[in-house]
Amino acid sequence: MEETLSILLVDDDAEDRMAVRRALTKAGVRMELSEVEDCESAMAALNNNSYDCIFLDYRLPDEDGLTLIQRIRKAKIKVPLVVLTSQGDEQIAVELMKAGATDYLSKSRVSSEILAQVLRNAIRVYRAEIQIALADRQIRETNEKLIRKNYELEKQRQQIQLQNLKLLEASRLKTQFLARISHELRTPLNAIIGFSQLLLRPKSGELTLGQKDMVQRILNNGKNLLVLLNEVLDFSNLEAGHLELKPGIFDLSKIVNATVAEMRSLAEAKKLMVLVQNQLQNPMVFNDSVRVRQIVTNLLSNAIKFTEYGCIWIDIKEIGQNQIAIAIRDTGIGIAAEDLSHIFEAFQQVDQSTTRKYPGTGLGLAIIDSLVQMMDGKIIIESKLGHGSMFRIEIPRQISLLNKDENPTEPRLNNQDNQNSEYPQQSKTSLRYQN
Predict the structure, then answer these.
(1) Per the confidence metrics, is the pTM higher than 0.85?
(2) CA distance 197 to 223
(3) How many CB atoms lie under 10 A from the CB of residue 302?
(4) For 5-110, which CATH class?
């Protein structure tokens, strides 16, 4: 052994101590050997010094080796213990090992080779036990940390779950409130619109120009307010999952043309041209005509609202065997790249200030997004700030009624795939917007 070992020898027999010392020296053990003759001296030495190994005689003048081992281990002193005895009783050896002895050697077998081997083995076993104990302690500490961490994570999970339940309840109450207040407001509002229309009829009596102007303003503002209330009601129904599609066969071209005709006056008031390019070979589709018209109306209304000069184009065409694209492009203010990911969020507008130029609830695109998803379609946006925007919705020509309450038997439509379409066929997993 290259290292110098600190060894304590406990034996009241001087000749036995000399025999051990000579054997270790002959074996080439580099050591600092301390010798004591009784148990009390041994305990005093152990309390004041640290040793790499202890050789102790089983028979000591004040106590036996077994009692000394028990005292050493009770004092939490960790050191290899090799008991030397002149007795060959195996039962004593068993008791010594149970008490904490590292090894047991009869004095009759003491030789340089055997003693050196016993010393090496005792130190090796001791150090291995120390490493195992250290590893066990680290594992216990790690397990305790994991237990504490899991406990903290569980508390956080419960808190998050509780917060989610509160948020769901708040959302449910908000949806109920919006639906109820919207429904309650529509009744008197419809009366206001109806009476305003009656007053503007010639049979209702002659009104002065000023009176007609005021009644017309009442009618226009009533209609605008009704549109806003309908948006809030639709949104609350969509959130609550109460809105369902009511599909039927209709002429898509007629729906688009009728919508453009209704809104052309708004465009003409801003001196905007509205151009429709219909490339459908077969205009018949199986979908919810009311909701398709709502989508086109909202997109066209936005295009007119956010365009101050120029033109608005509406392009309808087939992009596959069962896919139709409706694109509305304008020369308006455009959308900044950083705002594209937020425009489909409810109550969101690019300008959120109280003095914003363009009015509205901020629900139009959120409703469109939900309706298009219900139709198993998608929305694609191309926009550049200051250079206009293009919104293109792609929906099936014939939506599926599977997983709905309606009769799953669907009508057959005569489809013609336009292979020369300008729009490439795209998968439903493509990006929702492009800048």
Answers:
(1) no
(2) 11
(3) 21
(4) alpha beta
**166-240: CATH class:** mainly alpha
Helix ranges (DSSP H) in 306-401: 364-374
Contact between 324 and 317 (Cβ < 8 Å): yes
Per-residue pLDDT of the chain (435 residues; tens, 9 = 90+): 468 999 999 999 999 899 999 998 998 888 999 999 999 999 999 999 999 999 999 888 988 888 999 999 899 898 999 998 876 667 787 888 888 888 888 888 788 888 888 888 888 888 888 889 889 999 999 999 999 999 999 999 999 999 999 988 887 787 777 777 777 887 888 888 888 888 888 776 678 888 888 988 898 888 878 877 777 777 777 777 777 888 999 999 999 999 999 888 889 989 999 999 999 989 999 999 999 999 999 899 999 999 999 999 999 999 877 899 999 999 999 988 888 877 887 655 555 443 345 555 568 888 888 899 999 999 999 988 888 999 999 999 998 765 444 454 455 565 444 433 343 333 333 334 343
Domain ranges within the chain, ordered by starting residue: 5-110, 166-240, 248-396
Give the domain 248-396 fold.
Heat Shock Protein 90 (3.30.565)
Residue 60: which H helix or E strand, with range? none
Q: What's the CA gap between 107 and 111, in Å, rounded?
A: 9
Cα–Cα distance for residue pair 119/315, rounded to 1 Å: 95
Of 332, 336, 340, 381, the closest CA to residue 357 belongs to: 332
Q: Which of 406, 409, 404 is nearest to 241 (CA)?
A: 404
CA angle (402 as vertex; 374, 255 as ends), nearest 5: 50
